Amino acid sequence: MLTFFFDKDEAGSGIPARDEMQPGDTWDLSPLYASPEQWSADFALLQEEYSAIGEFRGKVGASAASLLALLECDERISRRIEKIHHYASLRCAEDSSDPANLARESQLQNLLTRIGEISAFVTPEIQAIDDATFAAFLADPALAEWRIRLGKIRRLKAHTLSTAEERLLALGHTATSGHDETFSQLTNVDMKFGKLADEKGIDRTLSQSSFSSFLQKRDPEIRKRAFHQFYAKFSDHKFTLASTLSNSIKADVFRARARNYPSAREAALFQDDVPASVYDNLISTVRANLAPLFRYYALRKRVLGLAEIHHYDTYVPIVPSVEKVTTFDEAIELCMGALKPLGDEYCSALGDGMRTRRWCDRYESKGKRSGAFSSGSYGAPPYILMNYKDDVFADVFTLAHEAGHSMHTWNSNRAQRWQDADYPIFLAEVASTFNEELLTHHLLSQTNDRSMRAYLINRQLDDIRGTVYRQTMFAEFEKLTHAMEEAGEPLTLDTIRTAYRGLLDAYFGPDFSIDTELELECLRIPHFYSAFYVYKYATGLSAAVALSEQVLAEHGAGGTEQGAVKRYLGFLRSGGSKFPIPTLREAGVDMSSPAPVEATLRLFARRVDELEQLLA
């Protein structure tokens, strides 16, 4: 299973061409293919062999042996696809201006469409096997290694319709999903936000991407002008956007009802076997712990010297970024020091991968994808793309974050069979943010410099605020609006704005100045068009904080790879062999209880105390 975890998106300019990069600063893709010619040869083999899957049509449920033969054939083809796709995607990421790289991706996409058509029968035929026969198949020792995979496919049976009904849903998918494309085209293509003078008086284009940059300017007037100019354009299109969001919600409810789920929310949670109570616990726990957040806003208001605080004042750092040059090799050493509690094997594998095996493509080059990601496939190195800048200290945290993803993949692939190695997003963000927590602790323990400590604490506070508090507010909005549709209530511009305004008042507090335009924010959040996803950010960070505190406490007491560390490493090795809640429970954190979220919010409160003292 090919995995990508995209985490940042920052553009650059004035950067060298790909062929001007030092080989040691680029990733080594030879473990996938030593040359493009080898890739082409493997692609030709895939073209020849994929049709073999069609030979099983109508025979999947004939016997346990027939089912096993199908699964093994599917694995053989899927692993070749995964390897071919991994190489093509990484080559395109390193230079999307190279026609050969673009051609490989185009070739593969065309072939994958044909493969999808010929293999579409597999899941329906597995689900069509009667219960008694399927139970007998699972009891057959020959299928022992496939029980987890088969169980995940089978549990969808209650929500799989007849062949004719499934055909109708498939035919209508594009029509019932068009709202997403409409939103994207309107907000990313049609809407123009004009120009705005920056702090040097130079006119810059205001856009979806530059908006966040303007909100981080030290001059409050620039932030204010950017906010009002940006939202004026959304106000011009507010009725269209409200209709688009309403239709997105209606489509979620339609699909859930068509597949016999109790609600759209439960349909989304079903994939990870997450009880609705986990979602509700998150909201109720955050709601009960808003006081530290209000204190933080009051601190922001005081330190920034504001007469009143607005939403556009919440992104500029209280403490300006530290001016510190950190080379990439020094960043590796900082990460290694922070991750030392995880033991020799973890650190040795990561250090070797970063220093000598060239897992990481380090610096910007022309045509390279912006930002950072981790990308892994079974049996291949868990590659990392960076656009590292030695004068941007935040890039050290980005490296630790992506290393968390990559070591999750490395451990999972070594411990699990191919069919059980892929882990869900619910778990993915735990490993990455866990590493950031350890790095924050390590850096704080290494410095007495007030400016650096204030910077690190401010950074952690903004992470928790943006990931737990803000994403929980978004999750509550999704819950409210879908419940409105399911109850037959109208979803209009007014009702949507009213619902969102109630959440803004609750989550920002009585001393916060909320501009009327902010009620339109709910119309511009892309995640709302893929509902019931944002809560995973909040649960992921909460689990990471709880687990990191256990590991650090054990390490501080002299423990090594026992107890908390052993459980955490077991979590990394578990892959997708279990659903998220039991996987995390075995690691030492119970996400079915409010405790992990409470622990994260207690940390937030402590950090507010510390920052208040540092900035007194």
Q: How many angstroms does the end-to-end distance come to?
A: 51 Å
Sheet with the most strands: spatial strand order? 1-5-6-4
So, the CATH homologous superfamily of the domain at 32-160? Answer: Oligopeptidase f, N-terminal domain
Q: In which range does the helix fraction lie?
A: 55-70%
Strand content: under 5%
**Overall pLDDT confidence:** 92
Question: Would you mind describing this structure in some detail?
Answer:
Strand 2 (195-197) and strand 3 (203-205) form a beta hairpin. This protein has a domain at 32-160: Butyryl-CoA Dehydrogenase, subunit A, domain 3, CATH 1.20.140. The termini are far apart. The chain has 25 helices and six strands. Helices cover 61% and strands 4% of the residues. The protein has a four-stranded mixed β-sheet with strand order 1-5-6-4, with helices on both faces. It has a two-stranded antiparallel sheet with strand order 2-3. Helix 20 (450-486) runs antiparallel to helix 25 (595-614). By secondary structure, it is mainly α.
Provide tags for this entry:
two-stranded antiparallel sheet; Butyryl-CoA Dehydrogenase, subunit A, domain 3; 616 residues; mainly alpha; four-stranded mixed β-sheet
Can you describe this structure in just a few lines?
With 616 residues, this protein is mostly helical.
Q: Mind sketching the topology for me?
A:
Blueprint: E1 3-8, H1 36-49, H2 64-94, H3 99-118, H4 122-128, H5 131-139, H6 147-154, H7 163-176, H8 178-190, E2 195-197, E3 203-205, H9 210-214, H10 220-236, H11 238-258, H12 264-270, H13 276-287, H14 291-303, H15 328-338, H16 344-355, E4 360-361, E5 372-376, E6 383-385, H17 394-415, H18 418-421, H19 425-446, H20 450-486, H21 493-508, H22 535-556, H23 563-574, H24 580-587, H25 595-614
Parallel strand pairs: 4-6
Antiparallel strand pairs: 1-5, 2-3, 5-6
